Automatic annotation (TrEMBL):
Keywords: Cell outer membrane, Coiled coil, Membrane, Signal, Transmembrane, Transmembrane beta strand, Transport. GO terms for molecular function: efflux transmembrane transporter activity; porin activity. This is Transporter. Belongs to the outer membrane factor (OMF) (TC 1.B.17) family. Residues 1-20 form the signal peptide. Residues 245-279 form a coiled coil. It is found in: Cell outer membrane. Pfam families: OEP. InterPro entries: OMP_efflux, TolC-like. The keyword Coiled coil applies. It comes from Patiriisocius marinistellae. It comes from the Bacteria. GO terms for cellular component: cell outer membrane; efflux pump complex.
């Protein structure tokens, strides 16, 4: 029975080790880079950056003259006005028109200029938001990664200690059979072994769950073949813990994106107010137009009769003498003519128009006034948000500073505790081996030592994470963090 339990434990340990060996080993740097390259929130934020670039392109385009071209093709049947001769005629004819318009805004209260400035600020704010999301994602990944390391370290420690318990079971069993120890000692150690096996199962499950959580954060579907490198992650002294909280707060206000985003939003609100006020100013624009037309309709023209160009007719009477006044009247005939060639008509029927247009706002139902007031309120709101962002950042940095100091003290206390508990455990083990203490006291000493190991692992990785948070607040780029 005892041998079978030992065999099951060894098989479980070997199976876990084989799975870990087969899984791809990811370093923390690889995990962070993978998250930065594939995280959906980051990709959405990158799209926001692209949209801000499009907004800037639109703002710049407002300084370029507009050029539009239009054309129309119409067929008329019945009584219609010929667009070329402007004569009414009952027939069927095809007509075409074309027009080119050029427009340019000469002055609009500097609204276009403000829109370009706003587009630059919008692009800057989008960049700040993207950087903040990257920092947040990197911290999430680092926290999840360190949680896996903590669970794996606890599992390794618990497994190693359980092997010691198994050895004690074998030795105690021999002593009980020899009559040197009571059977109660064997039962006590076996009970401790059962508790340790249960704890190992819990720790194995914690390792698997933390690995899956990290894989989901990285958008990795192959959970079974995902694992992390659990070596080489020690506390690296970057001297960040020696800096005062005032230095950290000052650096955070200068480097952190939270304040930069709030400042950019306030600048955007100020530009929106300036753009709204531009509507009070007159708008002056210039225009130029070119148009032409064509028709295939026939028309009647009058011309002199070639055979009888003139006729002699009385056109009046001399009042005093009654003598008739004779005159020559041109003889004209109506002649049906076809349309001129297409390009001839395009040239003959073209025309241009150009000029200036001035729009002066006088009354528009308080729309401009209301819009200005609305943007003033929005500007005040962003000013409050900037002030709140600075206060929140100062509070967060101070909290991170206190957490790091507390985490360091906890780690140092855990180191001292593990030293004392290890000595106490070794002493209890020696006394138990020579029969000077019972199995219960030995099990309690071993339990305290195991808990001290778990507390040391937890405090170590917690302190590493808290230090990295301080480094980010101090302005160290996420890709340059050292573990």
């Amino acid at each position: 029975m005892k041998k079978s339990r030992i065999l099951v434990l060894l098989i479980s340990i070997c199976t876990f080790s084989i799975q870990a060996q087969e899984a791809k080993q990811w370093t923390l740097a690889e995990c962070i880079q993978h998250a930065l390259d594939n995280n959906i929130s980051i990709q959405q934020s990158e799209l926001d950056v692209e949209l801000s670039e499009i907004d800037k392109l639109t703002a710049i385009g407002n300084f370029i003259p507009t050029l539009n071209m239009s054309a129309g093709l119409t067929e008329n049947t019945g009584l219609s006005f010929n667009p070329v001769t402007n004569n009414a005629q009952t027939t069927t004819f095809l007509s075409a028109t074309g027009r080119i318009n050029v427009g340019y805004t000469l002055f609009d209260g500097l609204a276009n200029y403000r829109r370009v400035q706003r587009a630059d600020l919008s692009k800057l704010a989008a960049d700040y938001r993207l950087d903040k999301i990257k920092d947040d994602i990197a911290l999430f990944v680092a926290n999840g990664y360190l949680q896996v390391l903590t669970n794996k370290a606890n599992l390794e420690s618990a497994t190693a200690q359980n092997l010691v318990t198994i050895e004690q079971i074998e030795r105690t069993n021999q002593l009980v059979d020899a009559g040197e120890l009571p059977r109660g000692d064997l039962l006590e150690i076996e009970a401790s072994n059962a508790s340790e096996l249960q704890n190992i199962a819990v720790l194995e499950n914690a390792v698997v769950i933390s690995r899956i959580s990290l894989a989901q954060l990285l958008l990795i579907d192959d959970y079974k073949n995902f694992d992390v490198v659990d070596e080489g992650y020690d506390i690296i002294d970057t001297e960040i813990s020696e800096k005062s909280v005032e230095e950290l707060i000052a650096a955070a206000k200068e480097n952190r994106n939270e304040v930069k985003i709030a400042q950019a939003n306030m600048d955007l609100a100020e530009k929106d107010l300036q753009i709204a006020k531009a509507a009070y100013w007159p708008t002056l624009s210039a225009f130029f137009g070119y148009d032409t037309r064509y028709t295939d309709g026939t028309s009647f023209v009058q011309s002199l009769d070639a055979d009888n160009p003139v006729s002699v007719e009385q056109i009046g009477v001399v009042e005093n003498t009654g003598q008739a006044v004779i005159g020559e009247i041109p003889n004209t005939v109506n002649r049906l003519v076809g349309p001129d060639p297409f390009f001839d008509q395009i040239y003959q029927n073209d025309g241009i128009s150009y000029g200036l247009q001035l729009n002066i706002p006088i009354f528009n139902g308080f729309q401009v006034k209301s819009n200005v007031k609305r943007n003033k309120i929005n500007l005040q709101r962003t000013e409050f948000l900037l002030e709140q962002a600075e206060l929140d950042l100062e509070s967060n940095v101070y909290q991170a500073f206190v957490d790091a100091k507390g985490s360091l003290k906890a780690y140092e206390a855990a180191q001292k505790a593990i030293e004392s508990q290890e000595l106490a455990y070794e002493y209890a083990k020696e006394r138990y081996d020579v029969g000077l203490t019972n199995a219960f006291d030995f099990s309690q000493s071993k339990l305290r030592y195991d808990n001290a190991v778990i507390a040391l692992n937890r405090s170590k990785y917690d302190y590493i994470f808290k230090i990295k948070v301080l480094e980010l607040y101090f302005g160290i780029p996420v890709t340059e963090l050292k573990f």
